[in-house]
Amino acid sequence: MNKLIGAVFGLALGFALAFGSFGQMVIVALFGAIGFAVAKVVAREIDLSPYVQGRRSNQ
């Protein structure tokens, strides 16, 4: 499954570079990385709870 995701992502970057500029390819790569991270959080493979919770007082 990871090979398929990598192949699709590489294909998308290739199309972005072929039909656009390098800057557009970087934007596609950035949004792909953001989408990948969001998918990992939704699938509960990455736990963000330590960063999202508020401060706890020691009193």
Automatic annotation (TrEMBL):
Q: Which domain of life is it from?
A: Bacteria
Name of this protein: Small integral membrane protein
Identify the taxonomic lineage of the organism of origin.
Bacteria, Bacillati, Actinomycetota, Actinomycetes, Micromonosporales
